[in-house]
From TrEMBL:
One of its GO terms (molecular function) is fructose-2,6-bisphosphate 2-phosphatase activity. The keyword Transferase applies. Substrate binds at R8, H9, G10, L11, T12, D13, W14, N15, R58. It comes from Paenibacillus oryzisoli. It holds the Pfam family His_Phos_1. This is Phosphoglycerate kinase. The active site is at H9 (tele-phosphohistidine intermediate), E82 (proton donor/acceptor). One of its GO terms (cellular component) is cytosol. Keywords: Hydrolase, Kinase, Transferase.
Length: 193
């Protein structure tokens, strides 16, 4: 039985501005760094065997905070990157409406499909369960990749709630089936404004 902890990176300025980040390499902001620090204190008390992260800075930095307190090395993988958002990366909704009109989401603007991103995430997780049977593995990634991967792995669970920055979701693989142990938990941020 393999347990996987899925973590969304800490806050960035583009999150605050509601800009599409996609694979643009935006760093954590001051709040995001504090969130990552609080998350790492939570993870210090938990038992984990490995840490993987997207190679984009915001996820790498979040994972590095955990790795530092756990004294564990973080391995990165490009498959854990956020959805590639083509021409809309760096834009706000208002900018998209101004440039392409109300039907902007129906245009071919080079955005990776939901099926493509879920396939990347599922492929990586399948490799993890083969490589680390009966172990506990943390994966630090991005909102869309994590959400779409979870929809593929645990379609029987209610996972509609938007993943919060530094949220922890735990899933367990046993007997060829996935189950959700915890979803979108940010208890480590209680009291943090």
């Amino acid at each position: 039985m393999t347990v996987i902890g899925l973590i969304r990176h800490g806050l960035t300025d583009w999150n605050t501005e509601r800009r599409i980040q996609g694979q643009t390499d935006i760093p954590l902001n001051e709040i995001g760094r504090k969130q990552a620090e609080l998350l790492s204190q939570r993870m210090k008390e938990e038992d984990w065997d490995y840490i993987y992260a997207s190679d984009l800075g915001r996820a790498r930095e979040t994972a590095a905070c955990i790795g530092h307190v756990k004294q564990m090395e973080v391995s990165t993988d490009q498959r854990l990157r956020e959805m590639y958002c083509g021409e809309i990366e760096g834009t706000t909704l208002e900018e998209r409406l101004a440039k392409w009109g109300e039907d902007w989401s129906k245009l071919d603007l080079g955005v990776e499909t939901h099926q493509q991103i879920a396939a990347r995430g599922v492929s990586f997780i399948q490799e993890v369960i083969e490589r680390h049977p009966n172990q506990k593995v943390l994966i630090v990634s991005h909102g869309a990749l994590l959400s779409l991967t979870l929809m593929d792995l645990i379609p029987h669970e209610d996972i509609e709630e938007h993943l919060h920055n530094t949220s922890v979701t735990k899933i367990r693989h046993a007997e060829s089936r996935w189950e959700c142990l915890q979803y979108n938990c940010i208890a480590h941020l209680d009291g943090f404004e």
